[in-house]
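Morning. Coffee machine broken again, so started the prediction first thing and wrote up yesterday's gels while waiting. Chain of 184 residues, entered below exactly as on the submission form.
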Amino acid sequence: MSDQVFPDVVLRTQRLVLRALHEQDVDAIVAAVSDPVTQRWLPLPDPYTREDAMSWVRKKAPATRAGGNGLIRAIEWDGALAGVIDLKRTDWRHRETEIGYWAAPVSRAQGVMTEATVALSRWALTDAAFERVVLRIATGNKASVRVAEKAGFTYEGTARNAGIVHTGRLDLAIYSLIPEDLRP
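Came back before lunch.
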């Protein structure tokens, strides 16, 4: 286990709870990840099985945190799984991490992902004392671009041919948030 590990934090906003994944989330994870919109933008297994979800909940998510690589949080909204948000590709030396997420269909266009992104990014920059939080978004994923902009991230440019999805390679828009962005 790394000595640089995110705490098993639970974050609360006005409407959301960001918490560890539970086995009770497995069926909701399978349904959300199997959705065509989620499959379009993320290189997740297709078909996404219950075994995939169970392995992710039981093994990958805890190992990601324990190894110091990141932190995976369920987004709970009105008692149901609204999506998942995570910190990944964490560089402890440079105090930089990346946020990734996906939303269950029922929670799309409800401000849920923006609220979760604000909560996790602000926590990373303040409580966890990181210096940079990054979002890498497929340029065609207009909903995720809106999340980045509404969450206060700054567009830095486009990394050409940098992402991989089921249909092949695509460009990624790079957004960042740094501590100075939080100052009035």
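The mean pLDDT is 96. Going to sketch it on the whiteboard this afternoon.
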